[in-house]
């Protein structure tokens, strides 16, 4: 079966699942595109170097919510990524890498956290699709693909 079609099937069931959260009234689920803009969402960031990122949240509901909202318990309100003590640092950490991997400390820097989560997954999927020689879902991995030029 075609990978894309597989995604859309899972996607539909995920949306059904997702709407049950809304019906249960426990979580208000944003299913539109979410604008990720650190100058509005991360305390202390005054100005962006790049443009804000348009994130199609619902295009990702084929994954477990906890894949991204990794501290969520499944019922409480979902915290923002840059909540206090999470990914709320705004400067490059001194020693970000240990054995070639970003340290937990480094991932408190919101930029590293987003880049790691968003880009790593897209790279992996593009790679898998290339290997499988299936219709290549060319997910954004280049700077301008996520931060479009103004
Ligand atoms: C691919 C990653 C990813 C997946 C999967 C995902 N989300 Fe999100 N979600 C995000 C990001 C990024 C934000 C923006 C967070 C922020 O502004 O700090 C967000 C925002 C939210 C918000 C708003 C939180 C706020 O700060 O107001 C809620 C609620 C939410 N998601 C619920 C869900 C639920 C429920 C699921 C599963 C059906 C889900 N998300 C799946 C990445 C994801
Ligand atoms: C766990 C894997 C995963 C993570 C994490 C993830 N994505 Fe994706 N992303 C996907 C997949 C798969 C698609 C394709 C969905 C589809 O076509 O139905 C996608 C699609 C997209 C698209 C639409 C691309 C297009 O050509 O229409 C954008 C934009 C995007 N992601 C941005 C982000 C951003 C920003 C983040 C981090 C906040 C993120 N993604 C995190 C897997 C992921
Ligand atoms: C898969 C999507 C994605 C890709 C690819 C990506 N970024 Fe980002 N980037 C984000 C997200 C999400 C944020 C946090 C939200 C924001 O931009 O404010 C971010 C934040 C940033 C920030 C800090 C906010 C600002 O604008 O000052 C910079 C700088 C940045 N990215 C530069 C880059 C550069 C340079 C590249 C290419 C090497 C790149 N990004 C590739 C998604 C991406």
**What's the story with the biggest beta sheet?**
2 strands, antiparallel
Rounded to an integer, what's the Rg over CA atoms? 17 Å
Looking at CATH, the homologous superfamily is Cytochrome C3
User: In CATH terms, what is the architecture?
Assistant: Alpha-Beta Complex
Question: What's the rounded overall pLDDT mean?
Answer: 86
Q: Kindly identify the CATH topology.
A: Cytochrome C3
Dominant shape:
globular
How are helices and strands ordered from N to C?
Answer: HEHEHEEHH
Structure ligands: heme C
Helix content: 25-40%
Q: State the total count of DSSP E strands.
A: 4
Structural class category: mainly alpha
Number of domains: 1
Number of helices: 5
Q: Which strand-content bin applies to the residues? A: 5-15%
Question: What layout of secondary structure does this protein have?
Answer:
Layout: H1 3-23, E1 33-36, H2 38-41, E2 53-56, H3 65-68, E3 97-98, E4 101-102, H4 110-132, H5 143-146
Antiparallel strand pairs: 1-2, 3-4
Description:
The N terminus is likely disordered. The relative contact order is 0.13. Helices cover 37% and strands 8% of the residues. The strands form two sheets. Strands 1-2 form a two-stranded antiparallel sheet. The chain has one domain: Cytochrome C3 (Alpha-Beta Complex). The chain is built from five helices and four strands; from the N terminus they run αβαβαββαα. With 150 residues, the protein is mainly α. Bound molecules: heme C (HEC) (3 copies). The site of one heme C has 20 residues, from helix 1, strand 2, helix 3 and helix 4.
């Amino acid at each position: 079966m075609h990978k894309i079609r597989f995604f859309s099937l899972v996607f539909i069931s995920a949306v059904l699942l997702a709407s049950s959260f809304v019906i249960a009234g426990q979580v208000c689920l944003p299913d539109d595109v979410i604008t990720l803009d650190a100058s509005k969402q991360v305390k202390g960031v005054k100005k962006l170097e790049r443009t804000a990122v348009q994130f199609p949240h619902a295009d990702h509901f084929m994954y477990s919510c906890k894949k991204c909202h990794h501290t969520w318990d499944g019922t409480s309100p979902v915290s923002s990524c840059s909540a206090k003590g999470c990914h709320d640092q705004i400067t490059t950490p001194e020693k970000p890498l240990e054995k070639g991997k970003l340290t937990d400390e480094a991932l408190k820097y919101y930029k590293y956290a987003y880049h790691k989560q968003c880009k790593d997954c897209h790279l992996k999927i593009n790679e898998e699709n290339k290997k499988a020689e299936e219709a290549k879902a060319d997910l954004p991995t280049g700077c301008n693909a996520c931060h479009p030029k103004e």
